[in-house]
Design goal:
Blueprint (H helix, E strand, L loop, with lengths): L1 H28 L32 E12 L2 E13 L4 E6 L1 E7 L9 E2 L2 E10 L9 E10 L20 E13 L5 E13 L2 E4 L10 E6 L3 E11 L4 E12 L2 E7 L7 E7 L2 E15 L2 E14 L4 E11 L1
Antiparallel strand pairs: 1-2, 1-18, 2-3, 2-4, 3-6, 4-5, 6-7, 7-8, 8-9, 9-12, 10-11, 11-14, 12-13, 13-16, 14-15, 16-17, 17-18
Keywords: Signal
Protein name: Transporter
Pfam families: Phenol_MetA_deg
């Protein structure tokens, strides 16, 4: 908890600056000096690589956005896909699913035996306010996500088959979005995401993603997590957008307790702990829209460091379609 409080305090100045930026957007739009301003309808967006929108879909409309990516780190590649499948239940409430699949390729060890399911996500988002030109109020929404532990995580014949965590998790989030008009009249869209994840316990048997060995029986208690992320999208033309995400995440320590039962021997008490993590990085991307409801994104997430962080590069491509 002490390390988590420290991480939140260090994030405070960044968060305060972003909130000031979002709330100040309305004041900026009231100024008439400078070139003609780009209209909101003239800008087509696919969304940045990471930051969630604070908007909701109109009632009866659907968004489908599959991502295809490769998490590249030293000695390993985690190929995967996650697809956002969202539906406007009402104008203010959007619900949906995020199915996830993956395949791990590992150097000097067996790769995954096949493509496997990750932990799946269901979510709902309720919009509180909406941005209007000339107003200081940004679009704000609250989001609820539930992670369903469908991915393999224990009784693993090979470690690379581990795709999940085995625990239910509830994530509460606040999403904000607003617009600036730059000195040349072009639009800059800004997003801010704040989330807190509360993890349940996972029953663990045998070799697992938690580092346990064959013969183990016990419980894993993943630590809760906090995330802050922001994005900036610059509308170069109606169809072309340059985007940049900045993010930081904190995860509390994970504990594993149980017994390992060796062959022809008494059970041995086993206690493992993975320390807390503090990870930060960025994700540049380019967006191109064929029409107002169909576009593609090409980008890369870069984890540059932190505490107990694995540096990685994740190139990705996404297709965004709204109907």
């Amino acid at each position: 908890m002490r390390r988590q409080a420290t991480a939140v305090r260090r994030t405070g100045p960044w968060l305060a600056a972003l909130l000031a930026l979002l709330l100040g957007a309305g004041a900026a739009v009231a100024q008439d000096a400078g070139p003609p301003r780009q209209s909101l309808d003239d800008a087509w967006w696919t969304g940045p690589m990471l930051a969630n929108s604070a908007e909701t879909l109109p009632q009866g409309h659907m968004l489908i956005e599959p991502y295809f990516y490769d998490v590249t780190s030293k000695g390993a590649d985690a190929f995967g896909s996650r697809a956002y499948v969202l539906y406007g239940l009402t104008d203010r409430l959007t619900v949906g699913l995020i199915p996830i699949v993956g395949y791990n390729r590992v150097s000097n060890a067996p790769s995954s035996s096949g493509i496997g399911l990750g932990d799946q996500i269901v979510q709902a988002q309720y919009r509180l306010t909406r941005f209007h030109e000339g107003s200081w109020v940004p679009t704000l929404a609250v989001q609820l996500q539930e992670t369903v532990p469908t991915g393999r995580y224990d009784n693993l014949a090979r470690a690379s088959d581990g795709m999940g965590g085995g625990a239910w998790a509830t994530t509460l989030g606040l999403n904000a979005q607003s617009y600036f008009w730059m000195p040349n009249g072009r639009l800059l869209r800004v997003r801010l995401n704040l989330t807190r994840t509360f993890n349940g316990d996972a029953d663990v048997s045998g070799a697992s993603v938690y580092g346990t060995a064959p013969g183990f029986r016990g419980t894993a208690r993943p630590g809760d997590a906090f995330y802050i992320g922001t994005s900036f999208e610059y509308s170069v033309t109606r169809r072309w957008v340059l985007a940049l995400d900045l993010f930081r995440s904190y995860g509390a320590a994970t504990r594993v307790d149980g017994n390992t039962d060796p062959v022809d021997a008494l059970p041995v008490p086993t206690h493992l702990q993975a320390g807390s993590s503090d990870v930060y990085g960025y994700a540049p991307a380019v967006e191109y829209s064929f029409t107002s409801n169909l576009g593609v994104l090409l980008g890369a997430r870069v984890i540059v460091g932190g505490h107990n962080a694995t540096r990685s590069l994740t190139p990705a491509i996404a297709i965004n379609y709204v109907h």
